[in-house]
Prior knowledge:
Layout: H1 2-25, H2 30-43, E1 55-57, E2 64-66, E3 71-75, E4 78-82, H3 85-92
Antiparallel strand pairs: 1-2, 3-4
Amino acid sequence: MFVRFLRFLLLVALGFFLFKWLWKGVAGWPFASKKKQQDEATATPNAPPKIIAEMKKDPVCGTYIPENQAVICELHGATHYFCSEECKLKFQEPDAG
Length: 97
């Protein structure tokens, strides 16, 4: 009888530690990911906010690029945003016909 009780306590303890390990360790569990997000949010309370740049469309190739990474050209009072110097040069070329 005493051996059964010890076996039961051992299984309960093992189940408890397994549950705690899974709760903290498995990223796929929604409970664990919420807890991790809360921990990360409170870990750096004085961190600056992430700045998200506005997306601009390249008039030559149609690619969307963040404004802070674009090659900028001002032409005839308008600002144009390009994904690369090549697109900028193509845009600035005079028309052949």
